[in-house]
Amino acid sequence: MNSIVRTNLRYRSIWISDNHLGTRGCNAEMLLDFLRRTESEYLYLVGDIVDIWRMRKSWYWRQAHNDVVQKLLRKARKGTRVIYIPGNHDENFRDFARHRFGRVVVLNETVHVAADGKRYLVLHGDQFDGVVKYAKWLAFVGDNAYNMALTINVWFNFVRRKLGIPYWSLSAYLKHKVKNAVEYISNFEDAVEYISNFEDAVAAEARRRGTDGVICGHIHSAEIRDIDGIVYCNDGDWVESCTALVEHADGHLEILRWTEMVEAAGEVVFATAESTTCESSSSLTPGILRSMASFARSIL
Ligand SMILES: [Mn+2]
Question: What is residue 246's predicted lDDT score, i.e. its pLDDT?
């Protein structure tokens, strides 16, 4: 377990995605804390940074959301190489691929060469949603179960905050708890299959392109694992898990779980989200399915 010291943590590269700025679910304060205490040569924003989809439906923007944007721009100005790869919730920015906003370069995808020479395809990942099939009723049930878990999480942490108890993610706990669960319901096997299909599809694309690995986001589930010789990396999200992927000076990759790191440093972490729904009910991502499957299994 890493522990946080007062001086900034330095990495060669940092990948973050699925911040969903502009929604109530965004943990903007936590993200700001992370950005303030970390430094890197490269900073990749791997999509769904601003949730334009959601903002069109209901406007939600706080000062902390401005602070995150300003912090990112300041990092770019001070010399961090910031690469913005739009996702499906901020796909409008895809029109500006290969353009620069100040020192922030926008690309639809790119290849990152790590310090150890390994090459990683970097993209958001929603492009691979289409290859994954699922039952329609499952989408309905899944989205509602997921939103319910998130809502419970928000209220739960609201009470904890009032009592001065650290932030604790119910949904993240449920996911973690059921990792070794053996119970299966046939439909939830489909859900698990959906996720591994997504991961396999992304890894297959990396193989096709001849890279050593792939770094993506989209499914809100941080992961580093080997898929038939391809290093599959997912940097997670800042709606529930508050995770980032980092590259150390020697090219070694690691997932940072920010709330755990802050807590390990003996600090109180406060939840900032007031209520939370980040995905529209018409879209079902593997992240939602994974949460749903985990949630269902944990209560069996
Ligand atoms: Mn996405």
Answer: 98
264 CA → ligand 1 middle, Å:
30
Q: How far is the CA of 33 from the centre of ligand 1 (A)?
A: 23
Domain ranges of the chain: 9-298
Q: Token pair of 65, please?
A: 């959301």
Ligand 1 centre to CA of 6 (Å) is 33
d(CA 235, CA 237): 7
* CATH number for region 9-298: 3.60.21.10
CA 208 / ligand 1 centre spacing (Å) = 22
Query: 277: Cβ–Cβ under 8 A, 6 or more apart, which residues?
Result: 23, 24, 25, 147, 150, 151
> What would the pLDDT profile of 234-272 be if each residue is shown by its tens digit?
999 999 899 999 999 999 999 999 999 988 888 766 555
257 close to 263: Cβ distance less than 8 angstroms: no
Q: Which residues pair with 230 in a beta bridge?
A: 227
Give 150's pLDDT tier (boundaries 50, 70, 90). low
Measured CA to CA, the distance from residue 289 to residue 284 in angstroms comes to 7
Q: How far is the CA of 44 from the centre of ligand 1 (A)?
A: 15
What is the DSSP secondary structure assignment for residue 89, as one 8-state letter? T
- The CA-CA-CA angle for residues 273, 151, 300, to 5°, reads 135
Q: Ligand 1 centroid vs 5 CA: distance in angstroms?
A: 32
Residue 225 three-state SS: strand
**Cα(262) to centroid of ligand 1, in Å?**
26
**Contact at 8 Å (CB) between 242 and 257?**
yes
Compute the distance between CA of residue 29 and CA of residue 175 in angstroms, rounded to an integer: 23
Residues 6+ apart with CB under 8 A from 299: none
User: pLDDT per residue over 77-90, tens digit each?
Assistant: 999 999 999 999 99
